[in-house]
Amino acid sequence: MLNLKVRAMASLHEAMKQYTKLAETLTPEGEPLDLFEHDGEFFISSHGERLMTSIAYGSEEELARMACQPLRPARQPKVLIGGLGMCFTLSAAVESLPQVGAKFVVAELTEAVVEWNKTYLKGLHPGLLDDPRVQVVVSPVQKLIADADGEYSAIMLDVDNGPSAFHGENNQNLYTIEGLNAAKAALKEGGILAVWSAYPDKKFTKLLRRAKFEVSEVEVPASHRGRKRRMHTIWIARNGSYQSQNQKQRR
Predict the structure, then answer these.
(1) Rounded to an integer, what is the distance from CA 179 to the centroid of its chain?
(2) What whole-number distance in Å separates Cα of residue 15 and Cα of residue 12?
(3) I need a surface site. Which of 76, 145, 193, 198 has the fewest CB within 10 A?
(4) Cβ atoms of residues 52 and 225 within 8 Å
């Protein structure tokens, strides 16, 4: 009985936490974004729904690890990350590819999110955005994909809730056959398209295969901690054989 009472009190304390709104903005599409903080914990929300937090980011880090680990033998891997968020994906990518020749391009749609990471959120990843290998571009990731021709070793998409896009048509276009074909064209032979989603989606798996990717779908824990075992989905889609691309680089 005592344990139940302690748990109930802990839950009540969690529910009563008073978060302070630090900043608010609108995306270029007119969607609201709000940044909140309490005792060093942050979250970004839209329309009252939490999009990302600084305490549940395990799946974002896993997205980067799964995309970048196969690239470790490459001398100059170049990766594109769609969505800066709170920098957890970028941080894990940089950690996974420590070589000097690696390059990390981040496309962030909303300029205020970049500024938040340089101000309110800078303590989460000190010095990360000062890494000379990191370039943050305020742009839709679709534009950077469309402008590339076999340029990237990996493309990571963490711009929304996944194929069931939360923020409108521009994000939804990433998950169409046209969007996937554009991503395929932007990848090197053997390159990896990694897609994060809050939910599984069998139709999207089929669509990736229709675009002639070699696909694996993995469920990973949403967070490193906490009692709830919520799972997120990551697709790893290969543009042909990475082994053949890696062999060409060594010649």
Answers:
(1) 17
(2) 5
(3) 76
(4) no
Helix crossing, 88-96 with 58-68: angle to 10°?
A: 30
List of residues 6+ apart from 207 with CB closer than 8 A: 175, 176, 177, 180
**3-state SS class at 32:** strand
**CA separation for the pair 120, 106 (Å, rounded):** 19
Whole-angstrom Cα distance, residue 202 to residue 218? Answer: 12
Give which of 203, 137, 152 is closest to 182, Cα–Cα. 152
Residue 134: alpha-carbon gap to chain centroid: 15
pLDDT digits (tens, 9 = 90+) for 149-161: 999 999 999 887 7
- Three-class SS state of 190: strand
Name the average pLDDT for the chain.
87
12: left (phi over 0), alpha (psi -120 to 50) or beta: alpha
